[in-house]
Amino acid sequence: AAESGAGAGAGRGAPRGRAGGGRGAALRPGRAGQSRAEPGGPEPSRAAPAMQPGASTCPARCPRKRLPQAVIIGVKKGGTRALLEFLRVHPDVRAVGAEPHFFDRNYERGLAWYRDLMPRTLEGQITMEKTPSYFVTKEAPARISSMSKGTKLIVVVRDPVTRAISDYTQTLSKKPDIPTFESLTFKNRTTGLIDTSWSAIQIGIYAKHLENWLLYFPIGQILFVSGERLISDPAGELGRVQDFLGLKRIITDKHFYFNKTKGFPCLKKAEGSSKPHCLGKTKGRTHPDIDQEVVQRLRDFYRPFNMKFYQMTGQDFGWD
């Protein structure tokens, strides 16, 4: 499908080639940008306004919808929403607010459908989206590579034990009658066998998921953002992200303030607003108290996977 040009769909609902008025008002472009009347219509007035300078080159310069050059692929409850909201402050980043879920749930709709979800961008701006479930979706790496082998990938990772508890807390807020965290963690509490089929546990085995991505993308094309540092030093992590995306470092310390009530940084000014902006009430929920023995069992379980992940990425995230 051809890329959408500026103004595509602007006149949807009106008959093609009509200017929305009666037959006599319908003009269509002729040669060299001149206007001529539709057959049967009156001759256009000589006083008709001339085309704006440079209008003939508009398709190359006007905003248009493009497939994303960068995708935040994970992880759920790692800090992806915060990263996206922070990045949208940058004038050269345009991103979809909602998660498209194209490469996991909507792939059969096709790339034209996907591109149509994207915001319009100017040449030189970066189009982005974020869907945290991509990181754990087996088919996603091949599908994104098929769209563009040059796509830059960003993964926000967080201590897998804390991430699992946060994941459970989110589910608990929607389904208060679910079993306890402790009972879901183990296949057998007596033997201490962890249930790796539970998605809250499964997502945190980062090394395993990363192996799948490295079949299609070089490690240098994937940036790993620390969810912890995104809270303790948002400007520092955003500096790394801007460098990775080839952007000028515009988002700095001056954009953030720490909200003690919520326990994480907020923007002094959000995109398109002069007011401070914190993430919604669904972020920063209070976690339930979890049996410390269970927490320790999980730490022991994740440790070898974390060590492997540190080796694969060349980064020590300090989770142990």
UniProtKB/TrEMBL annotation:
Its EC number is 2.8.2.-. It is a single-pass type II membrane protein. Residues 1-24 have a biased composition (Gly residues). InterPro entries: NST/OST, P-loop_NTPase, Sulfotransferase_dom. It comes from the Eukaryota. Its main location: membrane. One of its GO terms (molecular function) is [heparan sulfate]-glucosamine 3-sulfotransferase activity. It holds the Pfam family Sulfotransfer_1. Residues 1-62 are annotated as: Disordered. Residues 68-303 form the Sulfotransferase domain. Keywords: Disulfide bond, Glycoprotein, Golgi apparatus, Membrane, Signal-anchor, Transferase, Transmembrane, Transmembrane helix. It is found in: Endomembrane system; Golgi apparatus membrane. Disulfide bonds join 266-278. The active site is at 77 (for sulfotransferase activity). The keyword Membrane applies. One of its GO terms (cellular component) is Golgi membrane. 3'-phosphoadenylyl sulfate binds at residues 77-81, 158, 166, 283-287. Belongs to the sulfotransferase 1 family. This is Sulfotransferase.
